[in-house]
Amino acid sequence: MYAPAEHDEITGLLRYLVQQLDALRASAFGLTEAQSRETPCRSSLSIAGLIKHAAHGMRGAAARLRGTPSMDFDAYLASFAPAPDETTTALIAEFDAARAEYLEAFAAADPDAVTIEPPAPWHGRFTEQPVRWRYYLVHQIEEMARHAGHADIIREQLDGMSIPALVLTVEGAPANDFFQPYVPEPGTIGAP
């Protein structure tokens, strides 16, 4: 959890983003490969799919933050579900690699600098417009928080575990009156 602190703006934004990414990554901890692909809610989202989609989004956002944006709509559409030959463990490795690149680009951004926001016809915006990078940075936190929230709901449907407890477990937090570490079954994702 991002504890209260006196940070500058970019550090505060970055810490909130890291919190969302930690939650999303922890959502797979202790699942079987089959569980990570299940879609127990009315949507077609799975834990593995959310991790894959977030990695895709992080790579795209890092490219945009570095000034080299690209949009591959087919890759975007394919990012919502794992392919039959993709494992969740491999998707987590891709997530981790994308995360490092993404956080480096995010941390280097100047929230007050001006950038151009491209059209978003699905939101009724048909022309590009100037915005401060702050708009885009906060939007990144919004997107990752949405994905972490979806993962939390899916995980609770799968086995009743909540993401905060999984994050604390992954971080090595000791048991206390409010929390007992989760013990994953041997052979599951991330299990020792």
TrEMBL record:
InterPro entries to which the protein is assigned, alphabetical = DinB/YfiT-like, MST-like
Pfam families the record matches: MST (PF04978)
Q: What is this protein called?
A: DinB family protein
